[in-house]
Structure formats: structure tokens, C-alpha cells
Amino acid sequence: MKISFQNIQVEEKIAFQNVISQRKQVHYKKMDGAFQKFISIVVASGYHLKGTYFYSLNNAPIDEIVDIEMFIPIYENCFDTKNLATFNYHTYFEVGPVLKNSVTESFEKNTEQVYAELLATLEINDLEINTPFFHILPRDKAKYTYIYLGYTSNSLFLKDTEGERE
Of 39, 88, 101, 128, whose Cβ has the fewest other Cβ atoms within 10 Å? Predict the structure, then answer.
């Protein structure tokens, strides 16, 4: 794969077990509060956090409203969705293959650049996006965020249909 930008890495996948998620639409400036509330509800419900918190950005923000899905792995291998109806439980969560880049400092300012580099890398390699952007936050409160983007190739489909052309 041709990588034209310094920090982009090709990764096999991102994968987690026993993941709780919740999808919400919030103003981008209120995302931090939504994350804190999500984590607080999970912990108050008796679950134990395992691993790092991450979220997907499922839209291009319109009027500063973002459609996000928040995820957190837990130690428990079951989850009571009756009491938490707006939450989902995934025994296994996997996305792959993915490109990875990181945002350091000035998150709001630098994120758009990272998105553009990831998308340009897909375009240069004739690959197609097949996931939203995933943001994996550090556990140690460091000032960086990893951003992942899943992709697929049309080359398999093109190879299959090339023989059918006359």
C-alpha cells in the first residue's frame, strides 16, 4: 500500500470483547458530557470497565450536531439491556482492515487534517471507505487520540467481472 503521509499506519483490525455501546446525537461541544454520562451509567449499573473508551463519528456534523456511537469494553460477559434499553451489548466488536493516524494537541483543529489524510490514502490506493471514523482515546489522559478508518477494495469485484466483459 502506498502511504503518502508520515503518521498513517496500516493495521489489521481494531477488536474488543464484551463491549457496551450507545448511539446519540449531541452538539459537538457537549460530547465530553455525553461521554462522562455514558461511563457513569455503566459504572453505576455495576459493570467494571476494561480497556479503553472509543467512539465512532457516524456523520458529517450538521449545525454542529454529531451522530456518535460510544463504546466501552467491560469485564462482565453479559449485560442487562432491560434496565438500559438505549444501550447495546456486543460480545465481540471488530473492524478491519483499518488505517490509523493520531491527533495530538488542538484536537478540534487537527482532526480535519487527519481525516483528509486518511481519505486521501484510500483514494491514492483505489480503496473504499467502509466504516465511520473511530476515535480511540488514551487511558492515561494523554493529549492524543488515535483515529481509525476501515476500508475495502473493489479489485476483487473488478477481477470477478472482468472475465464477463466482451
Answer: 128
